[in-house]
Structure formats: structure tokens, C-alpha cells
Amino acid sequence: MGRHTAFRFTVDPLPSQVVVLARHAGASRFAYNQCLRLVKDALTARAVDSSVEVPWSRFDLINTFNAWKVSAAAGRLLIADASGEVAVVATGLAWRTEVSAQVFEEAAVDLDRALDAYSASRRGQRAGRRVGFPRFKHKSRDRRSFRIRQKTSGGRGCIRVGEDAARSVTLPRIGTLKVREDTRKLRRMLRTGRATIASATVSWRAGRWTVAVTVKAADLHPARQHPPRPDGDPTGWVGVDRGLAAYVVAARATGQQVFRQDDPPRPLRAAQGRLRRLSRQVSRKKKGSANRATAVARLGRVHARIRNVRQALLHEVANELVQTHDRLALETLNITGMMANHRLAGAIGDAAWGELGRIIAYKQSWRGGQQIAVDRWFPSTKTCSRCHTVAAVVPLSARVFECGACGYRADRDRNAAVNLAVWAEQHHARTRDLDARGPVINAFRGDGSGPHLRVSETSPRDGRTRPSHPARMSVGGTPEEGGGS
Fold it and tell me: Comparing 308-312, 432-436, 458-462, which segment has the lowest mean pLDDT?
């Protein structure tokens, strides 16, 4: 079992099941907030008494919450006898048996991850923006979801797919949920032993309930993996340049263009008119009303379609690159800094460069390939791929690169892709130095592809998302066929 992946299905629940799903989602939010309250109370008490222990790990949080939910603090009864004496009887949470106990435990696990991220950020061990202390989840703003972990009893798991019907998922304390998509691929993987269920996450997304079944899957068949390269081989790198005029251009160090996708995904721009109209409808509805909830769900469905169309194209581009090339070099883009340009922020966000890089990374590791992140300050766009002279300025409007030293002319994006491939070949043979050559992701290191637990990593086939029109791609070509856009 070398990789994690998820299959997301749209739930078609009965009216009674809708109530049960909402109850479980509310229980998950309640458990998270209560665990956070217990942590804050312990921190306050420790400020006075240093001997007070603060529940910080997932095991401590689970044990502390389990002790609290059966205590008088969670619920109690006052019973008076004939003599007038009143006795306090601890009942705990009166509704705790109406939901699966795993919902409480997984909420504590979520808080544990949030606390770990906060601690790592304070110590400077976490990249990216600074992470603050966890906050309470508000009922109206929280995305309703809960997670159930797979448990086996008597050789039978509590999460089962296709047991009562081909298109169904069975969850403990909830029952069998009908799903709209076909579960054949997942059932075949489970039946042949190529995958085991790890957990199931139920979420309310764009006015619909969805269930994402996370599985531990076996590594891809050797025939679908890239053959390992001999040690010290610096060749075979393909530079991948991402842009807006030409979305993705890939080329080898020799100057050969091997892939080109001219049209970047623009689903957000295409739906701007409808988004404005639906957003106005939401703003005109009274907060907390049923009409506002309906309008918000309608707006959410449009955003979900935008995401699905974008994800479909991203997966198509990533699959084309990963299936045909075992070594990819991607530039390290300062996307946050680029988004500061308000004229290009919308187009950059719509293109989803960061998401494309993430998808390429885990797909490449699944196939045993390599990916290298080129140094952020390497001037791939301003460097001549023939004489390696660095130009002073290359304006964005110039779609053809022209070297002032040797007179070489080439498509701007293909020239940058060639430079990325050359950089990777030169730096791959050096001593491992992440600052100098960027991180390399390689499935043959022995640590597998890593746990990709986010359900957004499903393929277009698994997520049942396809673009409304076929993408225009060109594969192959010679250095002379680069062309500008």
C-alpha cells in the first residue's frame, strides 16, 4: 500500500437521512468547540497553577472529551426525595448515543492538527503564512462536515461500498446512503485487494451532501511507472513554464518543445455575469432566512461548477505531462506577490498555477518520476537558451524572445521552458542542497507518495467532472515550431 487517494460521490439521501447527516455534522462542530474550550480552560488554570496539564495531543484530547461527556458538567439531573433532599445525578450529554462516537474522536484529531500547526508556526518550523491559535467554529459560517474512521469487527468494516446496492455507501449509525455516481472502480479495487478503506468524510458542498471515501491504494503497476534511471544521470529533464498567454509550455534542454497548452482555464471569467446576478440575490435576502440559504446554495453550485471545470483541465494537463515524462522541472512562482497586481490577479487566480503544480507533484510521485523546483530567482524568461546571456528587461507584451547578444529569436515561453530544463540538468548532479537546486520528489526514496488525504485530489473520472468543451492541446514539435501566442 503505497499511496492514498479519495473517491468522492454525491449523496442522494432520504429526508430522514438528511436529519441524521446534519446531526452528525453538528456533533462534529460541537466536539471541536468543546475540546478547544477544554484546552483554553486548562491554559487559563495553568497560568495560576503550573502543575495543571493541558490536553494537547489527540489522545489527550479524546480522553479529556470522553471524560467530560459523561460528567455532570455535560449534563445532570436534580432529583428530590420525599424529605426534600436534592441529589445531583450526572447524565452527561443526553444525545451522545444518537451519533457515532467516531465523530467526536475525529473532531479531536482535527483540533490536534490545528494545535500542531500553530505550534510549528510559532517555532518557525512551518512554511507559509503564520498560523494563529485555533478559533471556535460558528454554526452559520462553518462548512458542515464530519469524518468516520474505518474499523473492522469480525472481518467486516464499518464503512462499506456497494453492499446493499451498486451505488451505495454504508456508514455506522447512519445506514446505507444512495450515491449518484458509479462505484464500480472503487469496488473493483476493494474486491481485488488493491485498496483498503481508511476513512469516509461527509460534507455539505454547494447545496448537496457528498461522501469522500479515502483509501490506501497499492502502488501503480510497474508497467504504468517510469523506469528508474541510473545514478548520476543528469539528462531527461523537461522544463515546464506556466503563464497566461500560453498556459503550459514544456521543452527539453535541447530546445525541443514536447507539450503546449495555449488556452489557460478561464471558468471564473466565463461565469462572472451569473455570479454577479446570484451574489446580488444573496445580498438582498435577510440573513438567517430560508430564502437566503436557498440563494447561497444556488451561488455555491455555480462556484462548484467553476471549480470542477478548472480541475478537469488541470488533471488533463498534469496527466499528459506525467505520463510521458519522468523528470519535470517547474519554476518556483511567487504567486502571492503576483496577485498584488490587481490587473492580473483575476486571471492568475483563474489559472490556478499552484494547484497545477500540486497535482503534478503527487501524480509524478505515484509513477516513480522526479520533479524539481527551480530556484525562485533564476531568470528563466530573460535568459537566452542558446548563449545564456541574461537580458536586462523583457516586457510582458513581448511574446517573442530576441537575444541582443547572439540575435537568437524564439517563442518567449518555449525559451523559458528550455532554460528550466537546462537548469535542472546542471543542478541535479550537484550535492543535495535544497536551497541550491530545489526539492526533488521521488517515489523511489521509499517513503511512497505521501498521504494525499484531501478529497480535492480525486481524478476527473472519480470526481465525475469533465470540461464543457475539449481542451486544445498540441503535443510534440520541433524547436522551430514553438510559435508565439
Answer: 432-436
Do 386 and 403 touch, CB atoms closer than 8 A? yes
Question: Nearest 5 degrees, angle CA 346-CA 352-CA 355?
Answer: 155
Strand duo 160-161 + 168-171: pairing = antiparallel
* Residue (of 125, 160, 129, 171) closest to 21 by Cα position: 171
Q: At a CB cut-off of 8 Å and minimum separation 6, what does 3 contact? A: 216, 217, 218, 219, 366, 448, 449, 450, 452
Supply 413's cell numbers. 515561453
Q: What is the C-alpha to C-alpha distance for residues 210 and 178, in angstroms, rounded to an integer?
A: 11
- Torsion, Cα 379 381 387 391, to 10 degrees, reads -80
Q: CB burial class (10 A; 0-12, 13-18, 19+) of residue 74?
A: middle
pLDDT at residue number 429: 59
**Does 359 have pLDDT greater than 50?**
yes
pLDDT of the residue at 117? 93
Contact 318, 360 (CB under 8 A): yes
d(CA 424, CA 369): 14
Q: How far, rounded to the nearest angstrom, does the alpha carbon of residue 218 sit from its chain's CA centroid?
A: 20
For CA atoms 279, 285, 288, 294, the dihedral sign is negative
Q: What is the rounded distance in angstroms from the CA atom of residue 409 to the CA atom of residue 401?
A: 6
Q: Is 36 left (phi over 0), alpha (psi -120 to 50) or beta?
A: alpha
User: How does DSSP classify residue 11?
Assistant: B
Q: How far apart are CA 380 and CA 383, in angstroms?
A: 5
Helix (H) or strand (E) holding 443: none
Q: Which residue has the higher pLDDT, 122 or 154?
A: 122
* Closest to 61 (Cα-Cα) out of 103, 26, 104, 29: 104
CA-wise closest residue to 72 among 87, 50, 83, 57? 87
Nearest partner of 146 among 218, 221, 199, 71, judged by Cα: 199
Q: Which amino acid is at 272?
A: Q
CA atoms within 13 A on the CB side of 349: 13
Does this model's pTM top 0.85?
no
Q: Of the candidates 423, 418, 328, 320, which has an alpha carbon nearest to the alpha carbon of residue 368?
A: 328
